[in-house]
Amino acid sequence: MDGWRADYRQEILALAAANGGWRVPPPDPAMWTGLSAEQQRWLRSQLTAQSLKTFQDTMPADLALSDRPHYYLWAKDRPTRPYQAVVERLRDQEYWAVIATTGGHELPLTNPQAVLRVIDAAIRHERLPSEI
Question: What number of CA atoms fall less than 13 Å from residue 47's CA on the CB side?
Fold first, then answer.
């Protein structure tokens, strides 16, 4: 939440307060670009409330976690806030590979090939180019 606009942060906190104080209702999938109407309908049927804590937790100070490669796949064709801050933080970390692709927020639906390529690289402990 640290990278969010103040008005959006307050909106999420108000939604959580109205829903037991700890959970945030799912957003409308229409807000995410690149999804067909059919994908939006399917997502609406699958989404559930999310714990407020998942928005409030911060990244750990030690990002190494292990000596195996880590991957951060992000969609460069969506609004960069707050994701650009994560990209900048991870880009120069020894064990992290930051990979840009296209497809908006829901990459498993809009660009499953990129997601599978990263999963395959993780299984094989391989590095990927900075863009796929």
Answer: 17
Rounded to whole angstroms, the Cα distance separating 102 from 121 reads: 18
Could you tell me if 103 and 75 are in contact, meaning their C-beta atoms sit under 8 angstroms apart? yes
Measured distance CA(108)–CA(110) in Å, rounded: 6
Residue 110 corresponds to which amino acid?
T
**Distances in whole angstroms, Cα of residue 41 to Cα of each of 27, 28, 37, 70, 103:** 12, 10, 6, 32, 18
CA distance 55 to 121: 28
Is the distance from CB of 106 to CB of 34 less than 8 angstroms? yes
Per-residue pLDDT tens for 45-95?
Answer: 999 999 999 999 887 777 776 777 789 999 999 877 778 888 988 888 888
Question: How far, in Å, CA of 108 to CA of 101, rounded?
Answer: 12
How many other CB atoms are there within 10 angstroms of residue 114's CB atom? 21
pTM of structure: 0.79
